[in-house]
Amino acid sequence: MSIYADLLEFKRGILQRIRHDVTRLQPVARWAAEADLRIIESQMEGYQNRLELWFQRLWDLHGLLLDPEGRIVRYQGREATLTAREFQLLQFLLEHPHRYFTVTQILVQAWSEPTLFPEEVRTYVQRIRKVVAELDIPCDVVNRPGRGYALEFRADR
């Protein structure tokens, strides 16, 4: 999992550099660079899919269970009941491990509620962090300025 996460981070850096530099290239070079962008994006999609597969397998082995009907999260004999939005956010982040989402993306993709305020996302993230800590789930909801929020597995366990 850490290899896929590292590969994704490396590829993100390459994409950022190419996107920054592509506007200054001659048309023929720009066309070639844009083709490279598509190749790198395709590779990243494959890495992300594999990371999500292994992340899900890890949670299956560790015993993390989500009950959508009761909005309950269970982990190693402990459980917590979440609000609808808390549950949707946690489920969304679990489905996309190590992938960063901006506040706007979370509002649209996790909740389909673009009219909510950005501060509300921060509030729900704090609530999810508290649940994760209380249940001692080996992951963190991290925030990287300019990139957004992501759920990252802690490998120290």
Instruction: Specify the CATH architecture of the largest domain.
Output: Orthogonal Bundle
Structural class: alpha+beta
Helix content: 55-70%
Average pLDDT, rounded to a whole number, is 86
CATH secondary-structure class of the largest domain: Mainly Alpha
The strand line-up of the biggest sheet is 1-2-3
- Domain tally: 2
**The biggest beta sheet, please?**
3 strands, antiparallel
- What string gives the helices and strands in order? HHEEEHHHEE
> Rg, please?
18 Å
* Portion in strands: 5-15%
Q: Please mark out the parts with pLDDT under 50 across 5 or more consecutive residues, or reply none.
A: none
N/C terminus separation? 14 Å
CATH topology of the largest domain: Arc Repressor Mutant, subunit A
Overall description:
With 157 residues, the protein is an alpha+beta fold. It folds into two domains: 1-62; 64-157, Arc Repressor Mutant, subunit A (Orthogonal Bundle). The chain contains five helices and five strands, in the order ααβββαααββ. The strands form two sheets. A three-stranded antiparallel sheet has the order 1-2-3. α1 packs antiparallel against α2 (27-62) and α3 crosses α5 (118-135). The longest helix is centred in the N-terminal third of the chain and has 36 residues, at 27-62. It starts with a helix and ends with a strand. The model has no long low-confidence stretch (mean pLDDT 86).
Task: Walk me through the topology.
Layout: H1 2-22, H2 27-62, E1 65-67, E2 72-75, E3 78-81, H3 84-95, H4 103-110, H5 118-135, E4 139-144, E5 148-153
Antiparallel strand pairs: 1-2, 2-3, 4-5
